[in-house]
């Protein structure tokens, strides 16, 4: 008698950031923060070099928004909170607070 083989189901119980869909953290433009502020903030919070931070500041200014990072939701959320808590731009007296960032699912 031949042994019978039947297809089985394997359940993968792993969950974690590596299995989540990616999210974009998007910095929004406004008229109350200088390029210097954006460059300094991106360097401090993300470790971006001046050249990359300047390029992002240019995109935000010209297009109204720029993707700062793509990754797991919790990482994007943590960075969003840091941006929202970064404070006002001391170079602009009319600035009342931090910049804004939103989180969206990456396509």
SS-derived structural category: alpha+beta
**Helical proportion, percent range:** 25-40%
Largest sheet geometry: 3 strands, antiparallel
Stated plainly, the CATH topology is called Ribosomal Protein L30, Chain: A
**DSSP summary, beta strand count:** 3
- Overall shape: it is globular
CATH top level is Alpha Beta
Radius of gyration (Å): 21 Å
The number of distinct structural domains comes to 1
Oligomeric grouping of the chains: single chain
- Give me the number of helical elements: 3
What CATH architecture would you give?
Answer: 2-Layer Sandwich
CATH homologous superfamily (4th level) name: Ribosomal protein L7/L12, C-terminal domain/Adaptor protein ClpS
Question: In what range is the share of β-strand residues?
Answer: 15-25%
Distance from first to last alpha carbon: 53 Å
What average pLDDT do the residues reach? 89
Strand order of the biggest β-sheet: 2-1-3
Which regions are unreliable across 5 or more consecutive residues at pLDDT < 50? Answer: none
């Amino acid at each position: 008698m031949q042994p019978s083989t039947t297809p089985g189901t394997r359940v993968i119980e792993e969950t974690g950031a590596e299995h989540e869909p990616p999210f974009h953290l998007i910095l929004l433009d406004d008229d109350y923060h200088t390029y210097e502020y954006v460059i300094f903030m991106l360097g401090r919070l993300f470790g971006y070099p001046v050249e990359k931070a300047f390029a992002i500041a240019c995109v935000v200014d010209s297009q109204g928004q720029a993707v700062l990072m793509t990754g797991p939701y919790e990482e994007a959320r943590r960075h969003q909170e840091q941006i929202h808590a970064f404070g006002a731009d001391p170079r602009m007296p009319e600035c009342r607070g931090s910049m804004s960032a939103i989180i969206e699912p990456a396509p």
